[in-house]
Amino acid sequence: MSEHKYKVVPSTAQEKVYRCKVVGDAAATLHVGARKLNVQVRETCGGGFTLGLDPKQVKKIRLGARYEMHYDDRRLLVAPEVFTQAVQGEPRLRVLTVREYEPKKRWAFRLPFSKGQRIVKHEGTIGSTAAYGGFVLVLFCVMALPGVGDKLGTAPRIEAALNIMARNFGDVFESFRG
Predict the structure, then answer these.
(1) What is the pLDDT of residues 9-44, one digit of tens each?
(2) Whether residues 28 and 94 fall in one domain
(3) What is the C-alpha to C-alpha distance for residues 16 and 33, in angstroms, rounded to an integer?
């Protein structure tokens, strides 16, 4: 038997929907209200998916409602269409893809003065370079404050570094003028 299944939808044009089995990692997350349900994607087609559910999860899903699904680094808005015949005791749910969202932009940075590969990831639409630069600038200014910088011992070092940079910039500007 072929790996592809199809169903005949009763209509005037007898439309065929081809479904392909999913092999490999088929884990997905279905957001039902405030809960996240772990489901398995069993089949895909052009207009949706067939999901394998835990029998306890069936009563939490309403047909006709819309839910957000995370699968294969994608965010989708899906609408449950029909519960199909269970396979080996696993209930199956066919869902239609209503909308596929654009991926969220992520930005990450390494925390200063930390060891190893500690990465803090944030999701948002602000520019990651500007946010990181602002964080470093605020940290630099706090360390240069007279009271804080004197107690930490950073104020004299920062002052010396700024004097060296000012002299170097002065030399560069004089070389361009002359």
Answers:
(1) 444 444 566 778 888 778 899 999 888 999 999 888
(2) yes
(3) 33
Question: Tokens 């630099």 sit at which residue?
Answer: 140
Residues 137 and 82 in one domain: no
Query: Is residue 118 domain-shared with residue 79, that is, in the same domain?
Result: no
List the domain range (segments joined by +) for residue 123: 106-177
Mean pLDDT, residues 56-70 taken together? 89
Identify the CATH number of the domain in which residue 55 sits: 2.40.10.220
Q: Which two tokens stand for residue 167?
A: 């002299």
pLDDT digits (tens, 9 = 90+) for 96-111: 999 988 876 665 555 5
Residue 87 is inside which H or E element, if any?
strand 74-87
Tell me: do 87 and 141 sit in the same domain: no
Amino acid present at 123: E
